[in-house]
Known about the structure:
Helices cover about 40% and strands about 15% of the residues. The chain is of the alpha/beta class. It has two domains: about 100 residues, Enolase-like, N-terminal domain (Enolase-like, domain 1), CATH 3.30.390; about 290 residues, Alpha-Beta Barrel (TIM Barrel), CATH 3.20.20. A hairpin with a 2-residue loop joins strand 12 and strand 13.
Amino acid sequence: MKITAIKTWLCDVYRANLAFVKIETDAGVYGYGEATIEFHDRAVMGCIEDLTPELLGRDPLDIEALWHDAYRDAYWRGGPVLTSALAGLEMACWDIKGKVLQQPVWQLLGGKCRDRVRCYANAWFVPAKTPAEFATKAVEAVAHGWKALKWDPFGSSYRDISRGELRDAVRCVAAVREAVGDTADLLIEGHGRFNVPSALRIGQALADFGILWFEEPLFPELNAALPELKQRVPVPIAAGERIFTRYQAREFLDKRGGDFIQPDISHVGIKEMRLIGGMADAAGVGFCPHNPAGPITNLATLHVAACTPNFFLLETMATDVSWRSELSDEAIRVEDGQMLIPTRPGLGVELNEAALAKYPPKHHHLRHYRGDLTAIRPSGAQEWFHRQPATERQS
C-alpha cells in the first residue's frame, strides 16, 4: 500500500479554525487526521504541504518510520507547527491501519482497559459574566450530569493581578462552589497568563475552595518556575498543553512541574501521547490530556484513554457550534458525565468533505486578554454528542 495524495481543509467553528488532513492510498483506503492549532492554522497547512513530497509513495502502515523520518529531517525539530502537522498525518495513518485490519485504534495500541472515561466540562458557562450567572450555569451543568467543571474567572488580567481583579475572581469561584457544593470538582484555568507573584497570590486564595487543580498558572516562558510555585501554593497544579514532544514532557516530569500533565493530541499525536502517558505513570503524575478542539482529536484522545491505565480525566466541550453535526458522522455518547469509548474500525469517524467547504476559515482573535473569554460559543450552540438513552443504560 502506498500514499498517493494528501489533502487538507481549514474549517471555521466560531472561536477557531479546525485543521483536517486526509491521506489517500493506491488501495482505495484513506484516513483522516486533525492538526488544529491555536491561531497559526495556515502555518500548519504549509508544513503539511512541505512534508507531502517525502510521504508520497511510502506505506502509511509504517507509522513509526514515517513520523521519525519526518521529525528527523525537519532540522528545526520540535515546536507546535511541525508537531501539529505530524500529529494530523499520524492520526490519518492510524485511521488507515485500523480500517485495513478492521479494528479500532485502541485495539492496535494494546487493547482497552476501560469502556468509558470520566470527563470534565468546559464551555458550560456561556455566556455568564457575573458570579451569580456562573453559579446558575454551574447548577445547570451538574443537572446535565457533569461531575467536574473548568473555567477561567480572571477576566482580562495579564501578568499582574490587582486586588480588585483577584477579589472578583475569588467571588466567582466561591459562588460556583456554593451553588454546586460537593457534587462537582472545580478546575480553575489560568491560560498561561500570570507571573510568579500573581500566580502565588491566586493559588493561595483558591485554597479554601477544594479545587481539583489550578491550570497553566504561569506564562509558558516561565515553566521552569513551576516546581517552585508548586511547592509554595496549597492547591494542585496542572500544565502541559504546550508540551509538544516526549523530551519536553520528560523535563516537566523530572522537575516535578505539576501534579497533572496535559498534552494535546493535536500537537503531539497518538504515539507521543502514549509515551507521555507512560512517563506520567512512572512519575506518579496525573494524566489528563488537553482536548478542546474537533471531532477527530476527540476520538483520537478517546482511543488513547481506552488503553492507558493511568488516564484520569478527559476535557470535553459541553457545547459546540450548531454546524458541528454537519462536519462528520461522529457518534459520541455521554452517560452520567462519562464518555463512551468508540468501537468502529480506525478512529471511527468520516468527514463530510462537502460540508467543510461550507464554513471557510476566518481570522480569529485570542480572547484571553480581551475580557470576553466566556463568549467562546455563539448563540445557538448545542450539545454535539448523544446522551445514552435510559433504555440502553438499563440493558
